[in-house]
Amino acid sequence: MNAGVARQGNRIFATGREARLAVRNGIHRGQTAGIAPGFVQANLAILPKALADDFFRFCQFNPKPCPLLAASEPGDPRLPTLGEDIDIRTDIPLYRVWKNGEPVAEVPDLKDVWRDDLVAFLIGCSFSFEEALVEDGIPLRHIDDGTNVPMYRTSIQTQPAGPFRGPLVVSMRPLKPADAIRAVQITSRFPSVHGAPVHIGKPEMIGIANIMKPDYGDPVVVKDDELPVFWACGVTPQSVIAAVKPEFSITHAPGHMLVTDLRNSRLAVL
Amino acid sequence: MNAGVARQGNRIFATGREARLAVRNGIHRGQTAGIAPGFVQANLAILPKALADDFFRFCQFNPKPCPLLAASEPGDPRLPTLGEDIDIRTDIPLYRVWKNGEPVAEVPDLKDVWRDDLVAFLIGCSFSFEEALVEDGIPLRHIDDGTNVPMYRTSIQTQPAGPFRGPLVVSMRPLKPADAIRAVQITSRFPSVHGAPVHIGKPEMIGIANIMKPDYGDPVVVKDDELPVFWACGVTPQSVIAAVKPEFSITHAPGHMLVTDLRNSRLAVL
C-alpha cells in the first residue's frame, strides 16, 4: 500500500541501506514513510511461481498502477538491482500473509513462511513522486492532515493477464489548478512510480460516487478552488491479487515498505 | 492574434519559405493557418524605438503570453533567425496599422508606412502547439467547428514594464480529462509558443464569468465530460499595446501571421 504517512517520532536515516539495516535488526519496526528521505520505497507482492508469470504480464500490461521496479528469481530473496544486500525475508518491518485471498497473519519477517517457489515483486510507490511535489512547494492535504491518502476503486478496468483482472484503484490529491498543471509536469518525469495522473476533476466520470467516501485510506476535503487529481495507485495489484485468492501470498503491511538504495531523483526520466 | 483557422481552399506550401514568397508576391492573400504544415508562424507587433525597450522588457517579464521568438534592429526589416530572406514589410498577407491605439488601416504591405525607428517583435503562436496536439490525436473543438479559438480577459495581471500593463488574455480549449493531462505534457515541451496551460477547470477563479461569452474569438461548447483548459494567449501583447495607445504601431491582421523557416518540432525543448 502506498499510502503510509510519516509517523511522529520516526528516526530518520541518512541512506536507504541504513534504514533497511535498522529494519532488519529490529531497531525500526514502524511504518516507513519519511524514514530515509530521497530514497525509493517499494510496494511488495510475493506470489508462488505458478502465478508469477501471469502477474509479471499483468504488471507489464498495467504499468501505471503496477510499475515494476524489480522481481526476484523464484526462491531467491535477493533483489540486487534495488540494493546489493537486500533480503526480502527480513528487510520490511511488517508483512501480511494471505491464504486463499484472506489475510491470516502479520509477521515481522518471513523466515518461517519462505518457500523455494516464491517470487517477490517490488512495485513503485507514490512516496517518490510525493517527495518531488512537496519539494516543489505543492502542498498535499493528506500529508498536512497526517492521514492516509484517499483511494478509490474506479470504473476503469485493468488489462487482464491470466487470472489477474479488476478495477483500477486510484489515489486522490486535491490541488489548486495551477498546482495540478505543475503536478502533471513533475509526475510525468516519474513513470516508474505511477507517472502522470490518470484523471483530473469530475470523479463521477471514473465511477467515484462520493469523493468523501474513499474505498481505502482517509477522506480529505476538496476545497472550492481545488480540483481532485487522480493517480493510478499501488493498491491496484493488491486488490487484484486478493480477488484471485491465491492459495498463498505475501504483501507488506500497509505503510511498511521496502526502503531501497535507489534515489528518488534517479527515477526521473528527464 | 493567434486564433486564425484554416480556410477552405488555401493552397498548402511545402516549406515556410515557399508560403512566405507566395505572400510576398501576392499569390497568397488570406489567413495563414495550415498553409505550411510543420512550420512556425508568429504574431507581429511593431513599435517605435521609444517604446521598444519597455516592450522588450514586458515580453521578458511575461514569457507565457509573450514568448518572444525574435526582434528586429530598429529600422531593419530583416529577421535572420526566423528566415534568411524575411522582409517584415512584405511577408505578411495583411497588416493592421494603428494610430493612438485605434486601427486606422489594413494594408497588404508596409512599403508606405515603414520608418527607420520601427522595431518588429515576433511572438510565438498557439498554432505550433495546436499542431502537436492534433498530431497526438487530441481533438480541438474550434478547429473541428471551423471557428476562432475563444479568448478571455482574465483577472490575472501581467507583470508591468514601463507603460505596458494589463490583464492576461487566455485562449480556451475544452478537453476530456485524460486529454487535458496529455495536453499539459505536450505543451510543456513548447515554452516558446505559450507552453503549458495556465489554468484548468473553474473559469470563475480567473475572472471568467461566462465561458460562452469570450472577449475575442468564437464561443465553443464545453461538454459535461470535458474541462476547460486555458493557455496564455498572444492576444495579450496586442491588448496591452492598444491600452498604451502608441502614436504609431503595426500588427498583423487577425489570422494573418508571419510564416517562418523554423520547424514546430524544433521548438520542443525535450
TrEMBL record, chains A, B:
Keywords: Lyase. NCBIfam families: PRK05463.1 (NF003969). Its EC number is 4.2.1.-. This is Putative hydro-lyase ACFOOQ_04570. Belongs to the D-glutamate cyclase family. The keyword Signal does not apply. Pfam families: D-Glu_cyclase. SUPFAM superfamilies: PSTPO5379-like.
